[in-house]
Design brief:
Layout: H1 11-16, H2 23-41, H3 44-50, H4 58-64, H5 67-80, H6 90-93, H7 111-121, H8 127-156, H9 174-190, H10 192-198, H11 200-214, H12 217-229, H13 233-272, H14 276-283, H15 288-316, H16 322-343, H17 362-385, H18 388-400
Helix pairs in contact: 5-7, 8-11, 8-15, 8-16, 9-10, 9-11, 9-13, 10-11, 11-16, 12-13, 12-17, 15-16, 16-17, 16-18, 17-18
Protein name: Fluoride export protein 2-like isoform X1
Function: Fluoride channel required for the rapid expulsion of cytoplasmic fluoride.
InterPro entries: FluC (IPR003691)
Length: 404
């Protein structure tokens, strides 16, 4: 291409790079971008698999350095230099390839909306208040996850439908694990980026808070250990295999159904000629006033949940009923969710400086192994002490605190 005889045939490409110091500098920047894309392309699937649930408080820092800041910066420079950028050519300007569309949604294509989002982001909460708001979300959704798991155990348990039992391979936590894994395919894999574009803290609350409390590895592990200690080795082995198979295929089924639902939404938006990313920009919560109002409402909800749980626990504690265990679980659930969230920041980092084994979510693995150890220790103490009050405390802690 002859740079000396450049006409108006490509105004949009030269406009966004008009502030480059020299063609050589521009070529070096482009080559670095291409090399970084090629080097990181092989790690995309492993990182996104490891970060399917959450990345802990790393998400709060990354959201402050979001993609809007980089894309809107080049758009603003191009608009200041007088270039006309068409939305269809935004993808041709950047050489950074996006993540797979099943995991990450496309960015807003309207420069004016990006500029408005950039101005609204300055009015957001400080990082400390954003941490507090995230912890409140995790606490509320964690309690709701514990309640949902308890209801599913009662619904499919011997007292209602009789599908699950403590003495069979269909253990009581299997329905909640399957439902949570199915929803993880929706909220944690396919629609995670869409939810984050609307409200990133909501995505954290749904995945780490609600789904983390709905599913339980430690409870399933403990039931199989109880079967093996009782001499039912065949049932214990079959229970492990059945649990792994059903949970894995629940995630796959959730991902595939979410893909189908996404395809239907795209078809509907294509027929109505609407742009989904622009809708995300309109729905996104960026106002500090909205965040503070939401914080007040969630604090009231959390206070009501904890107050009701404490009052009912005080009333039913001496009876040793399952209700007392549930209310104690609701009281200790927020602490367990917060610990899981902070451990989730290790997900996707790998080992060492080279970051090997990035596909393995080490934060979630540490939380699961620790929860299994805590549950096993409480089970041993429960059998050795064998009193009504201690059984209530131990079972409540097993249900709420390490419920992962």
């Amino acid at each position: 291409m002859d740079h000396g005889t450049n006409d108006n045939s490509e105004p949009t490409r030269t406009g966004s790079f008009s502030r480059a110091s020299s063609p050589g500098c521009l070529l070096r920047r482009l080559s670095l971008s291409i090399s970084s894309v090629v080097s990181s392309d092989d790690d995309i699937h492993s990182e996104t698999f490891s970060e399917a649930g959450d990345v802990g408080d790393r998400a709060l820092h990354s959201n402050r350095q979001s993609v809007n800041s980089s894309v809107c910066l080049s758009v603003d420079h191009a608009m200041e230099s007088g270039a006309v950028i068409h939305p269809a050519e935004l993808n041709t300007i950047s050489l950074v390839s996006p993540l797979p569309e099943d995991v990450t949604s496309s960015l807003p294509v309207d420069p004016l909306k990006c500029t408005r989002d950039k101005k609204q982001e300055k009015q957001g909460l400080p990082l400390s208040l954003e941490y507090i708001l995230c912890l409140i979300h995790l606490a509320v959704f964690g309690i709701l996850g514990v309640l949902t798991r308890y209801l599913l155990e009662r619904l499919f348990g011997p007292s209602v439908s009789g599908v699950t039992s403590d003495h069979t391979i269909v253990y009581p936590n299997l329905p909640s694990n399957m439902v949570g894994s199915f929803l993880m395919g929706w909220w944690g894999v396919v629609f995670k980026a869409d939810i984050s574009q609307v409200y990133d803290i909501l995505a954290i609350g749904l995945t780490t808070g609600y789904l983390g409390s709905l599913t339980t590895f430690s409870g399933w592990n403990q039931k199989m250990l109880d079967l093996s200690v009782s001499g039912h080795w065949v049932q214990a082995v079959l229970g492990f295999l059945t649990g792994l198979f059903l949970v894995a295929y629940s995630i796959i089924f959730g991902i595939e159904t979410a893909k189908g639902f996404r395809w239907i939404l795209k078809r509907l938006n294509t027929n109505t000629k609407r742009e989904v990313p622009s809708t995300y920009c309109n729905w996104r919560l960026n106002s500090c006033r909205h965040h503070l109002a939401e914080m007040v409402v969630l604090l009231l909800v959390l206070g009501i949940l904890l107050s009701v749980s404490g009052a009912l626990l005080k009333e039913e504690f001496g009876s040793g009923s399952s209700g007392a265990q549930l209310w104690l679980a609701c009281l200790v659930a927020p602490l367990g969710v917060w610990i899981r969230w902070f451990l989730a920041r290790i997900n996707g980092c790998g080992l060492g400086k080279s970051g090997i084994l990035r596909w393995l979510p080490f934060g979630t693995l540490i939380a699961n192994v620790s929860a299994a150890c805590i549950t096993a220790g409480l089970s041993v103490l429960e059998k050795s002490v064998n009193t009504k009050n201690f059984n209530t405390v131990a079972t409540g802690i097993e249900l709420g605190f390490p419920g992962v």
